[in-house]
Design a protein that fits this description.
six-stranded mixed β-sheet, globular, 12 helices
Length: 421
């Protein structure tokens, strides 16, 4: 620990995924004593297996108005990218009702505007985070190529792209020939293409999170392998925490534990409508098939991203709770769709992490739970990012750093409050 901090009670950041790691680093770089708590090594959950995109385009709710007619059939089709296990339906109903309520047109527009206000900060905060972590070799800005296999998916996506464009996202229609020039490995099975130029990517999400934690340590931060169980409170202040390994005195706390944040928030008096969206990936190591940039085969949808470690194929929103076993049909679905657009790709798993499932922490709207916890003076929330944890790690961390320092973050935090539901 840096000299001069030894007698300070630290600010505790709970969760060493990319969101918690970024938050800890942004606080430590401003001179705060910070301790990062997690029962596992940094970046071992969603930060390990995500699609690698810093998705500045992702303003939309999980379900849009146009999705509603086909939603019931899709949710119970085991080969669908949005799948609900029947046994879990009773537990999922409250969350599903909230998601459906947010699909109303006016509500969806308002939520997208709020999400866009946070996404707009990527361009100013991500370079700071990357520079602090000495991780410029892990981050690039190649854009995203969307390809469509049918007129139906092309027309159906127009409403989504229009919503994105209304919120400042650049979306460019390009010809099939231009798309083939950009990515010659694609099979000639798509009829339309779009390009989203302002999309960043990390070529190794796990390494990026670990680099952020290394920089945090270099600023004097400490990492403790423990699972936080409860809090000690004195009025509106958090003064301590208890974990499986002991008790800790703290000057404040930030809950950034991803899917595990719901349990912690409930103990603090915030029973939030949060579910886990189980996402799946397949890593391929076939050097004969190459992509130069992230790609979305919209008919899946399946995202395909070239990483340092191979080509990653990601898809699926499975609602089945935290403890259900992995669903082999989800991997089958990813392979089936990938084979249409990259028929020569060898998708056989050869390593222990080549078939992976992770837990996305999702509330009923697309916005994270971000800001000071209502009724507390020194407790902050930074979780519930859904599909955009990596995407919003830097801007969310900066918001927390501003609040802890007593600065106005310059952002309307009303749409992100824990008591908005």
């Amino acid at each position: 620990m840096i000299e001069g901090r030894k007698q300070q009670k630290p600010i505790a950041v709970i969760g060493a995924g990319v969101v918690g790691a970024a938050t800890a680093l942004m606080l430590a770089r401003e001179g705060h004593a910070v301790t990062l708590f997690d029962p596992e090594d940094a970046g071992e959950q969603c930060s390990f297996g995500n699609a690698s995109l810093i998705a500045s385009f992702a303003v939309e709710p999980l379900v849009l108005p146009g999705d509603l007619p086909g939603l019931p059939r899709q949710m119970f089709d085991p080969m669908s990218p949005l799948f609900l296990r029947w046994r879990y339906l009773p537990k999922a109903i409250p969350w599903l009702l909230g998601v459906l309520a947010n699909a109303a047109p006016k509500k969806a527009e308002a939520l997208a505007r709020a999400k866009a206000s946070l996404l707009a900060r990527i361009e100013s905060t991500l370079p700071v985070l990357v520079a602090e972590a000495s991780a410029s070799h892990l981050v690039r800005k190649p854009g995203l190529l969307d390809v469509y296999g049918s007129e139906r998916t092309w027309k159906a996506s127009r409403a989504l792209d229009a919503l994105r464009e209304r919120n400042g996202v650049r979306v460019e229609d390009i010809s099939v020939e231009e798309a083939r020039q950009m990515e010659p490995a694609l099979a000639p099975v798509f009829s339309h293409a779009r390009f989203v130029p302002d999309v960043w990517q990390t070529t190794n999400p796990h390494a990026l999170t670990q680099a952020i934690v290394a920089a945090f340590r270099a600023h004097g931060g400490e990492v403790v392998r423990d699972r936080v169980r409860d809090f000690v409170r004195d009025g509106q202040r958090v003064t301590g925490m208890t974990g499986e390994a002991g008790r800790y005195d703290v000057a404040g706390a930030v809950v950034a534990a991803g899917a595990w944040s719901k349990t912690i928030a409930t103990r603090l008096g915030f029973p939030l409508p949060m579910e886990v969206e189980r996402g799946y990936h397949i890593m391929t190591h076939d050097a004969t098939v190459r992509l130069d940039r992230p790609l979305c085969w919209v008919d899946g949808p399946v995202y395909m991203a070239p990483l340092e470690t191979g080509l990653r194929l990601t898809s699926v929103v499975e609602i089945a709770g935290m403890d259900a076993p992995r669903n082999p049909k989800c991997f089958e679905m990813i392979r089936r769709h990938a084979a249409r657009i990259l028929p020569d790709l060898d998708t056989r798993a050869t390593g222990p992490d080549d078939e992976w499932m992770g837990l996305r922490p999702s509330v009923t709207d697309p916005n994270p739970v971000l800001g000071r916890a209502p009724g507390f003076a020194n407790l902050y929330f930074n979780f519930g990012h859904g599909h955009t944890g990596l995407t919003l790690a830097a801007p969310s961390a900066q918001v927390i750093a501003d609040l802890v320092a007593g600065r106005d973050p310059g952002l309307d935090l009303g749409p992100f409050r824990a008591d908005r539901f």
